[in-house]
Amino acid sequence: MQLLDGKSLSQTIKEELKTEVDAIRQAAGKIPHLAAVLVGDDPASQVYVRNKVRSCEEVGFRSSLIRRPATISQEELLEVVETLNDDPDVDGFIVQLPLPAHLDEDAINLAISPQKDVDGFTPVNIGRMTLGLEAYLPATPNGIMVLLERYGIETSGKEVVVLGRSNIVGTPMTILLSRKRQPGNATVTLCHSRTRDLAAHCRRADILIAAIGIPEMVTADMVKEGAVIIDVGINRVDDSSRKRGYRLAGDVDFESVKAKASAITPVPGGVGPMTIVSLMMNTLKASQAK
Ligand SMILES: Nc1nc(=O)c2c([nH]1)NC[C@@H]1CN(c3ccc(C(=O)N[C@@H](CCC(=O)O)C(=O)O)cc3)C=[N+]21
């Protein structure tokens, strides 16, 4: 069984990015600048955003963290977005999700300029991706594509089963994997809460991608011998034996599944760090687009 070490691969890619940024600086070019908007104080969101800001520092990007209270109004948040759209110093920005329930996530997303949408969540970028045009690709699915590519995992002609149909992971994942290019050319099945006999679909998968948000839902009996397992889940599970009071669990029961898998991502240290590196790659691209 091969461990697909996203953490170490992300370090390698960050070093490559740093070399590029250093060259840009030598040439007196513009250093990439990523801004992140964090509304409220959801603990998981704070961790993710902190990781993004730290990664920016590691590769020599500029970063700005814009924090607003959970009580911010829709109009005030739209103003923050407009300010970032208009700020020539900011190459790209993200609005960390989820937002507090009184805010309209779709309306905020639609207000983000596609040229600065380094998350790849706006209609223009999703449409361009779907058409196979140059686009900012969504960070988690693209991070998975980079992971598969760098580990030399063949996707062409393979049966890929994706669990979960979210706008930011499951749905774009199916588009990238079925594209007529490498990596891609896979036969993709998208499963969700209404899928009948989920386990039977999973057992057919050469590559199984779990993005459902249910801790350890994928068990060994659902996995084909030799399958490649990509675990997108990052679930906090109560654990009184830990100092923090919780542990991180994926959507896959790692301990039982690893015996059957030919390759598997751990949680943490798998898809999460690849998501961040993919955001960095988009930000570098944004800074060079002008
Ligand atoms: N606008 C927006 N863009 C996103 O890209 C976005 C988002 N909203 N909302 C939430 C999801 C989730 N996400 C993660 C990023 C890093 C880790 C990460 O660094 N994970 C570490 C550990 C994290 C921990 O210790 O809790 C790891 O897996 O090794 C995880 C998850 C980005 N997302």
From TrEMBL:
Reading the lineage from the top rank, the first entry is Bacteria
* Keyword Amino-acid biosynthesis included in the entry's annotation: yes
Q: Where does NADP(+) bind?
A: 164-166, 234
**Enzyme Commission identifier(s):** 1.5.1.5, 3.5.4.9
List, alphabetically, the SUPFAM superfamilies matched. Aminoacid dehydrogenase-like, N-terminal domain (SSF53223), NAD(P)-binding Rossmann-fold domains (SSF51735)
InterPro entries on file: Aminoacid_DH-like_N_sf, NAD(P)-bd_dom_sf, THF_DH/CycHdrlase, THF_DH/CycHdrlase_cat_dom, THF_DH/CycHdrlase_CS, THF_DH/CycHdrlase_NAD-bd_dom
Pathway participation: One-carbon metabolism; tetrahydrofolate interconversion
Q: Which GO terms describe its cellular component?
A: cytosol
Record domain Tetrahydrofolate dehydrogenase/cyclohydrolase NAD(P)-binding: where: 138-288
CDD domains per the record? NAD_bind_m-THF_DH_Cyclohyd
Q: Which GO terms describe its biological process?
A: L-histidine biosynthetic process; methionine biosynthetic process; purine nucleotide biosynthetic process; tetrahydrofolate interconversion
Segments forming domain Tetrahydrofolate dehydrogenase/cyclohydrolase catalytic: 4-119
Q: Which Pfam families match?
A: THF_DHG_CYH, THF_DHG_CYH_C
Q: What catalytic reaction does the record list?
A: (6R)-5,10-methylene-5,6,7,8-tetrahydrofolate + NADP(+) = (6R)-5,10-methenyltetrahydrofolate + NADPH; (6R)-5,10-methenyltetrahydrofolate + H2O = (6R)-10-formyltetrahydrofolate + H(+)
Keyword annotations for this protein? Answer: Amino-acid biosynthesis, Histidine biosynthesis, Hydrolase, Methionine biosynthesis, Multifunctional enzyme, NADP, One-carbon metabolism, Oxidoreductase, Purine biosynthesis
Provide the GO MF annotations for this entry: methenyltetrahydrofolate cyclohydrolase activity; methylenetetrahydrofolate dehydrogenase (NADP+) activity
Which family is this sequence assigned to?
A: Belongs to the tetrahydrofolate dehydrogenase/cyclohydrolase family.
Record note on quaternary structure? Homodimer.
Q: What does this protein do?
A: Catalyzes the oxidation of 5,10-methylenetetrahydrofolate to 5,10-methenyltetrahydrofolate and then the hydrolysis of 5,10-methenyltetrahydrofolate to 10-formyltetrahydrofolate.
Protein known as: Bifunctional protein FolD
* Annotated source species: Neolewinella litorea
